[in-house]
Amino acid sequence: MIRPEISTEAASDVLSSLRQKELVARARDAAGHAVSALEEGVSPEYAGTHVHASLDALSDLCGETTSEDVLHRVFAD
At what angle do helices 44-62 and 18-39 cross, to 10 degrees? Predict the structure, then answer.
């Protein structure tokens, strides 16, 4: 959970594969790290790297990217 008012548990029923669940978890964790970094007073540029990681995971989830890792996982299953 990133914030108490945002529940991510209900979304797990909607995701159809382990890969999708892992991507959502990766995006959620990276976003949480970005928020924590900003709350700790870390530079916005550093926090931005976590935001970028979160967006990368969401892009993979939506099919906007085709990284080698994603292709390997798709064809391995």
Answer: 170
